[in-house]
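Lecture notes, unit on protein representations.

Consider one protein chain, 767 amino acids long.
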Amino acid sequence: AVNVILASGGIGNDVVLGGAANDVLVGGDGSDRLSGGAGSNVIDGGAGGDLVEYLNATQGVRVDLNEGTVANNGHGLGDTLISIEHLTGGAFNDILVGNAAGNILTGGLGADVLIGLDGDDVLDGGAGAANTIQGGRGDDRYVVSAAGDTLLELAGEGSDTVQTTLSVYRLRDNFEALAFIGAGTFTGLGNALDNTISGGAGGDTLIGYEGDDILVGGAGAANTLIGGLGDDVYVSDAIGDSLIELAGEGYDTVSTALTTYTLRDNFDALRFVQAQGVVLDVVGTGNSQNNTLDGNRGADLLAGLAGNDTLNGFDGDDTLRGGAGADQLDGGAGSDTVDYSLASSGVVVNLGGRYVASDGEGGTDHLTSIENATGSAFNDTLIGDNSRNVLNGGLGADVLIGLDGDDLLIGGAVAANTLQGGRGDDTYRVSVAGDTVYEEAGQGRDTIETTLNAYMLRNQIEDLRFIGAGAFRGDGNGLDNRIVGGASDDVLSGRGGNDRLEGGLGSDTADYSVASGAATIRLDLGGATNDGHGGSDTFSSIENATGTAFDDLIFGSAGTNVLIGGAGRDTLLGGGGDDTLIGGSGVANELYGGAGSDLYVVSAIGDTLIENANEGTDRVETTLSSFVLGAHLENLTFTGAGAFTGRGNGLANVLIAGGGDDVLNGGGGDDMLYGGAGLDTVVLSGIAADYQIAYGAGFATITDATAGRDGVDMVYGIEQVRFSDGTVLTLTPPASSPGFAVGEGKGDVADHHTPLILPSPSWDDLF
């Protein structure tokens, strides 16, 4: 009887198994796996790539797919095969013959004979006894796991590959490729053809011999790769790989996925490769030969060193260093830079002409797709083109010419440079006071970026930005300027034009001291409605203002401000915050402190100081030889020279004199009076009998017995006290008593004790 067994899966990949009888097995449309069993079978794989297995054979099988016959199915009988592409033998000595299709022939454990015939076949002899394997025409793949396998290929029968699990393997004649698929280390040897030899994850040794070979070391342990004669390619992805080439053995290339690589001696080319979608910045360095260095998609740095090199940056913002020799430098896509910072003399670079007339090493270079140039440590000439260029002169006295485009010109920080931007919105980076910047009218809106702590804009430059450290003084010109300070306490002056002043961090000042007319400055509104030059300015992060030599009106803000009037008759209004108001030494000024504990600096006799009640604890500093505190002002300090006469008011005042013979009168309230050096006198409004003097540690306390008059005053560094009845008392602490009453007649001027002289207190000491 004949059993007919049909695949139930239809178009799927089915498994169809026969029995002991004579079976008919039909596989269907998928890639099916069929096994006939012990009978004499007819096996039809149908459409798809179908496999017949003889794993259960009790003896060696002989199958010929080209004829469609099985002389021995492993059970002493024959099968008929229809539409079968692949075969798997059993555990005995099998003979498997393919056909014109691409067959997969797997021998099993015995000493098998596999013959692929035409087609791109896969022939696997198995790991048992030694096999004989012949691929025939087509690009065949041999899987070798037995050391004694014999592989046969004739010349011109395709490009054939050996895959092996053996730890050592040498390609036979007429084989092109060798790949290790085992574990551990591997030694792979080529032949005289153009071979591709691939190692595994271990530390492999690959030797190409003759031919233009490709050696793939693998990314695991360090490998040893020896190309031999021919134009070889070394795929080196392990950091410790040892690559060996002798002189004169061909044009050899390293291909690597590493991000940093330096060519060894006798290698000619370096190529960086990255997986699809991966963007890494790479650093590639050549040798003394004529190298070709290829970057990748990142911001690459390629350095050719000596030799006539070709550097290709490709995508990304690349930096190319040709070194000595006549080099070809191609940046590719992105904003790319040619770098001569290591040159041994000055360079001449013309980006518009796409050439380097002098590379600093005696050579000339050709440029393609290069947007930027970096000079040497010597005197360079760098010329841009009509696109946006970055020209960096380096350390020498350089000439930088941007031409058209929005260029960045960096002069360097040592010698004086000449910078000319040309048309476009150019930026000049200035670090040397002697730099000369050229711009013509109508050539764009241009910016100076400087590390200098003081800078004044030249004509035709609009904007100024401080990029250094410390405090900065920045001055504009007659144009509409934007001036930007830094992180410290900056002074910004727009001068003419409608300017924008941006202080940044720190306590910053808008300065109008050189204006040709009076200014109206409104810190509270963020600008100057009249800048003294006929324009108006706007502010950002400006805390302080300095007026002109004319009659200015200056308003503070809600924060802490320093307002300086200048030489004119100025009106200063502090607003909120603890403000400092400096009227100037010219004609009389009006100073309004407003809320907060304000400081008034007075140098003009006619200054008017206006404070309302409960607006903080306010202080006056003056250089005038005489000053009387007005209403609602608490404290007075003399900062001038010579003798000083100072008078308080009805509040609790602090009066501090200077180094002369000073006279202080606290007025009403409980005052603190400090005389300083010199013979200093405190004037009281009552007779001597009305007061009691007590001595403390470093000071004296004078108490007026009459209520509502002088109060209780503490005096420092005061030598004598003058009363309204003409009595003058020298302050001399008694030897045995901490204090005494003047009215009791003790401690009069005849006492011979050292006057009370105290160290100078600071404001922090007093409050």
